[in-house]
Write a structure and sequence with these properties.
224 residues, alpha/beta, Arc Repressor Mutant, subunit A, Uracil-DNA Glycosylase, subunit E, four-stranded parallel β-sheet, three-stranded antiparallel β-sheet, 35% helix, 18% strand
Length: 224
Amino acid sequence: MNCYKIIKAIDELLELRGVWSVDPVEANSYLERKGLLNDSQSRPGLPLRKLLRAGEIPHAYQDGRCWRIPHSEHKNQCAKVVTVQDCVDGAVALDPVADQKSRILILGSMPGKESLEKQEYYSDTRNRFWKILSALYKEEIPQEYRGRISFLTGKNIALWDVYLSASRRGSLDTNIVSGSFNDIIGFLNRFPNIDVIVLNGAKAADAFERYVEKTKFNPGREIC
């Protein structure tokens, strides 16, 4: 089996989607369409998970019990892996959404419970994030998540959060009591065209201020 071709195909999938990592189910389905690795009808993603367990995709990692496969060129740029057990309530950041055309980075504090469960940014219907973007751009935003991500990349918008992991009860930002930070400096080095950072709430602004203080980071970008 040519694992080099498999890795390159997964890189291609990530570039098409404009994300940093993918789960084995979606990756295996794409590999089957490319004629590289048959999928399992009874347990989707199983053939690829076997390769992951055997260490054939060396830059992949486990986030708690789930496998994540980043771009092979991002293996040294990815945020430190933190398992669910490291967090009081399992609050572990989602992978960033970005590509080389990104000009605006919207930083939250930490995804809510529903977003973490679905692995989708701002999935709670009570959150006004997508409605605000729709109003700003005067466009309808797709209901399907992949369409929403395409909308963001089409507007050169990147998404991420300040916290990599946090101790928090429930989903409210006000319940975050401590946390570790994402590698925002490394992220901005990877995507140098980002020239505006938008902090989408008071907690995100407070966390970003403490990140800057801790790392002595000079953003050199417009902050709003």
